[in-house]
Design brief:
alpha+beta, Chorismate synthase, AroC fold, 8 helices, five-stranded antiparallel beta sheet, homotetramer
Chain lengths: 379, 379, 379, 379
């Protein structure tokens, strides 16, 4: 809802690219969770501009301040407030766009909607807002670790036309370039890096695809009909800056398969019911089936170019925007922790909603022997 | 939220495939809207099983009863209740799946989540639930007609490997086969029809893609950050049964474009600011820019096959499901009105939210001359 | 929100006094709850016009139809739909008020808000809408019985100036008059009955106070800061037709007490921490403390009088309304099950929210020994 | 919902009494509102501990920092973030209650709910949290001033047994004591002041009643059935710390009136329909009728006493709490701006919801001549 995401695990972000900073308030976090502040900062650091030449030259430490909701190292059940001050805001850099509408940015639409806009660095439409999401996602991950076996891994599957053609089994980023582009295959990462750098040198930009895999799932997560796990993920992903497409499991490739190919056959594996294939992406009828949840997210090329661009000013007069400012020639690598973060918040929220309504004891014939707990929360 | 969709324009569906019927309660509808009941029934009829051999043989008139919220032919501002009784429920047909988990259906996940399930025809997970969505969408369309110039058209762009390679300019369905498959190009429709029928004869099934275009848009619809127009559409589409992917504008094809190709250049057209291309799909920063909103939705092939299928029962024992029951060998054609309906409800909800917070008068220096109205509501 | 109440346990009512009927959709009910339909009907019967002369002469069987959400006698976790058709709607009786604004009714305000109104019997503003609340409350009570020890008892504490001066210990209604006025003290009930009948004979009306006590509570229910148990109860009660005041525990009588008198001293009783007095009404800081939750609700006298009344028509012209129609000279007795029902829905909703966020295991040093269950759900 | 209040105009508070500070994020504020920061600070100053001896000796400047949502002096339509650092937190003062349950405080209930608590100054249950509400209320008041004629005045009607027996016509606080107790009648204020001071000297405390009047209303505000204006006000008031009762209009005094006395007769006054009396408190059927909205709120005496108090520690052992710490012997005067603030946020939220769904043009026969505006927003 507006600037709040979630039903029970709810976070509200505020702040702008060149205002005072970026904040987030996280509500609905259970009491007693050990707040691993170093982990939260690590997650933020993954999102931060890096030191390689393929990311923006804006320097920010992105160090958070914890404002509320904690006591003796644990969450208290009251809202967690976080604040990350802007440090390297150079608003003067944006004077040239104060009256201009940059193509494929949110300048024109914010003006049309709100009557005016904070033009400095895109204001609220800047991807700097995602700092709040990464913090919320870090808290969500801490909670998932504490109460479930769920793990989330995202990586860059494609940059421009350079594709990784398989799902990694090891997500470690062993080389500098795989670190820089967030692709675990060193060879493909190297080619991706080169492609981004080519675009950068040409004053141009490229997009790509992030893939994500959630393992350690249990069956039963997601709510029919309007809080389906896939629908919630789709919303969370499409709401990330520059995203143009989302697919779950087989996604668009399902379209030219026959049903006899696409169906995931059930098999028994020990005590568990599993599927032989996973075209469903771990979700059937909007509810997890215990297989890995898999999805892919398409990012458009960065709208800002480092070359002169023809456009209009607010009065509709043609102008030429110079190619200046600080930006990423490809946002995809830095979006990996954002994809994971949004995924984590969706999973936690649905998990809390699921728990709220799940009373296995209602099925017990012998009330004295009931166990209100689901079997899926970790011992 | 669970079985309710929307913030202000909110609809709640209830009912199951083989229970008493399907209902929907629509709240947040402005008072005074003329309720064109014939139009609502026409929309339902578009969703209904047709007479061609490529749809399910279940016969339902899908005639709605209007239960509340109207007076003298107009909405009263109180909730509209609608009810569509099930007529042709043959629950006996489902005895063979009472203890079976059909592959790629919601049988297993509903059981895992809720402890048991209404197995008759899929119960609540059946696409019959979308009757409620189509009714809500019809009311949303009536409201859009009354207060805006917005129009929504969806059509079948692809069935299996048969593609329509352009965006239609005329959405009329002139032939029986284009009616049957909901593709306005008669020639392509004929090939699509044939492909579906081939699958049907083989006891198999196929999927496809529905494209949708919203015209008559105004700039400013959609809410940063967590009620973006594209995010809301993605959620609404991914929540439709059998959907595996959603893309806005350029979608996944943006991935291998350069920014210099993908940016939509602004141009002035009379008093309006327009864009030369529309890779953005009419949405920038989550907010409409006045261009047509365009998106595409991928549907997997129907999970039910008319051939024997290996699977497991609830105890995990292998069984063979016979290929029987009534189903669509391809759900895509009948999903066209559902895509339009969900799109309409999203647009109306965001429009009401936008209106709630939009006071152009706040910008007026002369308070005596203000006009609280946005310029975008139709005279 | 508008016509929906609750966060997780959410019910949406629809329908009007003289439309087709009254419906309710209840979402968020856990799967597996045995649906005791006879109990639900009994609760409805408590709300129904009685046979005594002090209630409205409108005859309605108020027999519900269950439309969805059940299978083999249990809830399925999907929405429960209920429908109660109107049987004795005599809309002609209301022709005389079609253009009139009845004093202290919602006629004028509905017109002002919505532009027009369904004037027949008050339309949506009629207390007939509370049928939906009583059904939702009955389902909530069934759930409370199944998963907790919570019990809710409301009774009539005062009618006009006739007061019951103590809290009953036995809520049985042993005499016809105590049945009729819902006051367990036979002597006081008799005086109350007489007072109502006097008002009726004079074509006048009276109000009163309903008291409510929730026993079997556990400490911890209610959410700081904006879903406090007392705030939620206050909202639920003030939203009942004709209510003008709500007080919790000591209520307005706290005003002229000193803190040294009003504080509830803690004492140990076995393993439990209790309080010596209960001026807090079982709620401290918005959260239950395990003592009985107690509150009182003030009802104004019925606005409809059986005598000629001076008022205005829609054009603002003075008119005289004749004293006719069917109504209760005192709504208080029939509101007792409504107070209980609204109380039950609040408690269940907060209980589910509480459960969603409560993981005692987070505090366990030994993760292998944790128990995710709260101790307060019944074995 | 938890720590967020409102549907469209939504504010989320965070922070604790002795943590880093108190914050609030306000979402849903229309763009273009001139942010009168001095006014916001003035409102905060009204809530702040004063200089008189009848308020707490905790010294706080309560100076806010504006963190987001503004540009060139106006709101941008994005969330406003505010932060008020704690300055005079002396947490050591609370060591004596670290393991104690203070009677009629939230110590025990927070522990029971969350497993532990931030005991310093009551943590999140402290009335210091209301700083966030007063800021949200100040923004709401600015918006009401800009788009409506609505004005809100609250005052102290009663302290312990000292009552103001009429509704003031002038709300100016002319004397030091009327300033201190927030009662506009100098003589009554003097007696109230004395009563509070007596209690203070005795180490005791007193409660009281705050009355509130909203003038400049228009008919039509409030949503049947579960967002009634009176229900929303009741929830907002009952959620304020120490409140035990709320009544609208006649309130509990309606109970022993006859309907013939209580009904508010309609009269025509120029073009407006008014009522002769206002027992309804300006609300009928949950919707404003244009008369002044009036309500009264009962506060219990402060739970903290400046004398030794018998109570229990966390282990259930009896202890004696010394009478120390900093507190108000009567919270009522400082709660006046809080009552006004909560009232303002409710009115703005319902006003935005109302606007969202109100399209008078739907009733126009001539579509070319419609005016989508309601007549009630100020020119």
């Amino acid at each position: 809802m507006l600037n709040t995401e979630g039903r029970i695990f709810r976070f509200t972000t505020f702040g702008e690219s060149h205002g005072e900073g970026i904040g987030v308030v996280i509500d609905g976090v259970p009491a007693g969770l050990a707040l691993d502040l170093a982990f939260i900062q690590e997650e933020l650091d993954r999102r931060k501009p890096g030191t390689s030449r393929i990311t923006t030259q804006r320097k920010e430490s992105d160090t958070f301040q914890l404002l509320s909701g904690h006591f003796e190292g644990k969450t208290t059940g009251t809202p967690l407030g976080f604040w990350v001050p802007n440090e390297n805001a150079r608003s003067k850099d944006y004077d040239h766009i104060a009256r201009a509408f940059r193509p494929s940015h949110a300048d024109y639409t914010f003006n049309a909607k709100f009557g005016f806009r904070d033009y400095r660095g895109g204001g609220r439409s800047s991807a700097r807002e995602t700092i709040g999401r990464v913090i919320a996602g870090a808290v969500a991950k801490l909670l998932l670790s504490a109460i479930s076996s769920i793990q989330i891994n995202a990586w860059v599957q494609q940059i421009h036309s350079i594709k990784l053609d398989h799902t990694p089994t090891d997500f470690a980023l062993s080389t500098e370039e795989s670190m820089a582009v967030r692709c675990p295959d060193a060879e493909v990462a190297s080619a991706m890096y080169e492609r981004i750098d080519e675009a950068r040198r040409a004053g141009d930009s490229v997009g790509g695809i992030i893939a994500c895999q959630v393992s350690g799932m249990f069956p039963g997560l997601g709510e029919p009909v309007y809080d389906k796990l896939d629908a919630r993920l789709a919303s969370a992903m499409m709401g990330i800056n520059a995203v143009k497409g989302v697919e779950i499991g087989s996604g668009f490739s399902a379209v030219d398969m026959f049903g006899s190919e696409h169906n995931d056959t059930f098999v028994k594996e020990g005590d568990h019911i599993r599927t032989l294939t996973n075209y469903s992406g771990g979700i059937q009828g909007g509810i997890s089936n215990g297989e890995n949840v898999t999805f892919r997210v398409a990012f458009k090329p960065t709208a800002t170019l480092m070359r002169p661009v023809d456009t209009l000013d607010e009065a509709g007069n043609p102008i030429v925007l110079p190619g200046k400012g600080r930006h990423d020639p490809c946002v995809v690598p830095r979006a990996v922790p954002i994809v994971e973060a949004m995924c984590a918040t969706v999973l936690v929220d649905l998990l809390l909603i699921h728990r709220a309504k799940t009373f296995p004891s209602l099925f017990a014939s012998d009330k004295g022997n009931q166990n209100n707990d689901t079997p899926y929360f970790l011992p």
